[in-house]
Amino acid sequence: MLGPVVTQIQWKMYASEVTMQVDVIDQPYAGIKEWLTGEIGDGALLPGLARRELRKWVGDHPALADLQLIASELVTNALVHGAGAWVRMTLRPTDEGERRYWRLTVVDPGLSTCVPLPRMPGPDESRGRGLWIVDALTCGCWGTDRTQAGERVVWALLPRD
What per-residue confidence (pLDDT) applies to 24? Predict the structure, then answer.
């Protein structure tokens, strides 16, 4: 099966974000969004911005809530641990044999040398559970890579059906 047919690509630049809007004939479509972290002001806004963007991309798809939760966790980790000037999120439908997935990817400049792994937070800690949530929602179908430019990529697969 062929992927979505692209009819128009628009780039928009704002003070705090760079947007690539892809218009296609058949929905749902892929999306790319990059935020300039120094221009957002309060980094705590980033998860909400990611959730809003996903709603624009997939509408009321049944997987929206899970995608939003995964994106919130991954963009927060990129912001906190990546400590870079930008965070980029992409979403695209992908097929593997008969199975159809959403592939959500969050990329940061890769300034941290640590590999993202779930950790065991103490009972009094309010942080440290995000990757466990991602792992549970994706049934372990997530991972991390580096690009040739050294950027950190964290991806997650979630069923589309």
Answer: 44
Structure token pair of residue 138: 């994706």
Better-scored residue on pLDDT, 1 or 83 = 83
Residue with tokens 């593997």: 96
Angstrom distances, CA of residue 130 to CA of 40, 60, 78, 136: 22, 24, 12, 10
Residue 60: pLDDT above 50?
yes
pLDDT 10s digits, 77-102: 999 888 788 999 999 999 888 999 99
Nearest residue to 87 (alpha-carbon basis) of 76, 97, 98, 95: 76
Q: pTM, whole model, 2 decimals? A: 0.80
**Which one, of 70, 36, 30, lies nearest residue 157 by Cα?**
70
Instruction: Classify residue 93 by burial, with Cβ atoms within 10 Å: 0-12, 13-18, 19+.
Output: middle
Residue whose C-alpha is closest to residue 89's, from 101, 78, 100: 78
Positive or negative CA dihedral for 133, 39, 86, 22?
positive
Complete DSSP assignment for 96-161: ETTEEEEEEEEEE-----SPP------TT-SSS-HHHHHHHHHTT-EEEEE-TT--EEEEEEEE--
